[in-house]
Amino acid sequence: MKNKIALITGATSGIGKASAFAFGKAGINLIITGRNEKAGTQLAYQINKRYGVKIDFIKADLSSLNEVRSFCEKLNNKYEALDILVNNAGARFYQYIKSPDNIELTFATNYLSHFLMTLLLFDLLKKSESARIINLSSGAHWSNNININDILLPAEYDRRKAYGQSKLAMILFTYELSKRINQKNITVNSLDPGGVATNLGRNNCLIAWSKHYISYLLRGTLVTPATAADAVLYLSTSEELENVTGKFFFRKKMTKSSDVSYDDKPAKDLWELSMKICNITLNENK
Per the confidence metrics, is the pTM higher than 0.85? Predict the structure, then answer.
């Protein structure tokens, strides 16, 4: 892992933070991003002091497409290549909120920001000898479909549906991107880490968060962020996955995602919608 460099979004808490420590321990240099500058700066200091890897924290609010563009511009100007991209940042919102770009905030934060970031950093990934993109999803994707006509500004807001759709979008993006990439040195896979003991959604509604947390606890399927981070590290570094792309994993096991996630039409429709909103193209062959 010497001289490898990884970018982890949403790295100041939960799975992202645990992954940053796991990557640092593995000797991987890091770029981390999050909205909390104090937490990000402290995390960078702790990992550098403990493991001696190079680590760069850059503050960014991924709910804003302009901030994503600014963040990626900094990386493209500063770095020569990127070996691992972990699209991890995610959020739940109890009430309907619009992003700075007038898009439903869950979709904007969990999916659209990572779509744009991946394409803006694609040239850096191409310069790696072997680059991997890991898109964090969730079991919440199973009970959802993608409604292209309603996803940006839903007529009726349902927090569970909004979150599930954003995580289904990450899988559709994974499969579609894997088909469009004309680069043998880049793979892209999606990961469901399972029920993880994080504070995701706690800021919105403590009762709803508690019910979600306890349901996993009672089923005996709740795991720590460190366990989830181990799966992230596995997908990012395992030699046996070197040429594996366009797949879905539950923790460290390759498995099937929902039936709708394999439907080409919503995947292509989502891709075209995302390209239009972000006003960007993918130069696969450049």
Answer: yes
